[in-house]
Amino acid sequence: MKMRLLPxxxxxxxxxxxxxxxxxxxxTYNLDIVTLANGTQAYRVQCLGLLESSxxxxxxxxxxxxxxxxLRVSSTDRAVSGFKPENDPREIVFVCQTPPPPVVQAPPxxxxxxxxxxxxxxxxxxxxxxxxxxxxxxKQALDKFVADSDGVNIGTVVIDGHTDSTGSNAxxxxxxxxxxxxxxxxxxSHGLHAGQYQVHGYGKTKPIASNAxxxxxxxxxxVEIQTQGVTAR
Length: 233
Hints:
This protein is α+β, with helices and mostly antiparallel strands. Helices cover 26% and strands 34% of the residues.
């Protein structure tokens, strides 16, 4: 176990002022309980014999602290004749500290999709026939759109309503616009973060399939939603 050294600025305040009686001894060490200047109880282990070594001291330090972290208050190196004291501590004063809890790294923020998006609501599945009331399937689709847009700000939402070619121009224009307005109102009231809405009713003027077939007319009856200027919130 690696021993941390107390900063020099704190050593003066923790000078040993009294040594207790020897509490334990063995062939390679002596152990005392001492009191520091601030009243903290500490340990002093000595390994001063010719056959003793700093490894014996460190082994005893580790044994005493167990699963706690040893913090060195002071130490005395063995003086070798003709040389400066080497890094071979034979007397160590230390305290045992509970190790700090591990640092938990915060998970990275989720990636936010800022790409422009387009969804299309098929009118037959999402609106009542020849009306602009949303059916449950339409509400569910818009709820998902709002949920998928969480975490972003949308500069502009463009909502375009379309019909097939049956019926009068006035009826188709009015129906396509009212359906687009219904979608806008639903998105606004359900928390979509958008700076502005552009709502259009194009009636039968922009088909995407042939109006000559049942299937083509069903494709043309739709509301398209597009997002522009999407940024992370």
